[in-house]
Write a structure and sequence with these properties.
The longest helix is centred in the middle third of the chain and has 36 residues. This protein folds into two domains: 102 residues, no CATH class; 135 residues, no CATH class. The protein has a five-stranded antiparallel β-sheet with strand order 2-1-5-4-3. The protein is built from seven helices and five strands. The C terminus is likely disordered. It is α+β, with helices and mostly antiparallel strands.
């Protein structure tokens, strides 16, 4: 607490308080509090200007007692005059700083601080559902020419085994922040899927957003073309081809797609 009578004690307390403020203001994560702090700081600056002027007068008022360590009064008088002049100059500079702080505080008082802006959620990663190249891709590429990319996406969606496909992609590193597209590649999207294909290099790849739920029609649940009765050659042949291609590419265990047929959702995708 200030004494208002003991300049030595009050100067020591002021020094400690300023050191504390310097440390406490390293991180100002509550900007709405800065205006009030600037008000206190402005008061301290004004007091500092006054203090320096008073110390300048103190040196001239007591100049008759000044001497150096050898008792030379002339040398002491010169040093007292020099000290007073420097302190008056410092007071003038503090006065300039006081006006700058006052203007800054006025601008700060016009700020209406808002809550931090909500950051957008990171975009969903893409997982590779299937990749076909060479002879394996010829049928899909021909289908693109005949019926368009949507037809191929609908057919290749049969390779999507829900959580099993996601787990296999994560395990084998087939996960991407954005669609991997090379020179001459073409891109098409349908529902949650993205198709990348290249006639010149003869490859086709289907990707899906990791946390997206594809349409049940695309997954072969609601469309009769993809939900043929179990045991039919069409159904069993397509399922076997899908399982074999996925096993060869990703080395994952056999998945019986019949388990998903006629269910309202797919395991891991509808929950």
């Amino acid at each position: 607490m200030p004494t208002f009578t003991d300049p030595v004690a009050d100067a020591a307390e002021m020094s400690e308080a300023m050191r504390g403020l310097a440390h406490a203001s390293i991180v100002l994560d509550q900007p709405e509090r800065m205006y009030g702090i600037l008000g206190d700081l402005l008061g301290a600056i004004r007091s500092l200007e006054q203090i320096l002027g008073q110390f300048a007068r103190g040196h001239t008022n007591s100049i008759g007692r000044a001497a150096d360590d050898a008792g030379d009064r002339a040398a002491g008088t010169q040093d007292a005059l020099t000290a007073a002049a420097e302190l008056r100059q410092a007071a003038a500079l503090i006065g300039q700083a006081e006006r700058r702080v006052d203007a800054g505080m006025a601008a700060a008082g016009r700020i209406a601080w808002q809550l931090p802006a909500q950051t957008s959620e990171p975009a969903s990663r893409l997982i590779n559902v299937v990749f076909l190249q060479g002879g394996e891709a010829d049928h899909a590429l021909e289908l693109i020419e005949a019926g368009g990319a949507d037809a191929v996406i609908q057919e290749l969606a049969g390779y999507d085994f829900g959580d099993e496909t996601v787990d296999a992609a994560l395990e084998n590193g087939y996960v991407y922040d954005k669609v991997p597209v090379a020179s001459l590649d073409r891109v098409a999207t349908l529902d949650a899927y993205t198709l990348v294909y290249n006639h010149d290099h003869r490859h086709v790849a289907l990707y899906r957003a990791e946390d997206s739920l594809p349409s049940p029609v695309l997954l072969g649940i609601a469309d009769p073309r993809h939900a043929a009765p179990a045991g039919t050659p069409e159904r069993d042949g397509a399922a076997a081809d899908s399982r074999q291609a996925r096993r060869e590419r990703l080395g994952t265990p056999t998945i019986n797609r019949q388990n998903y047929v006629n269910h309202p959702t797919l395991q891991g995708l509808g929950r």
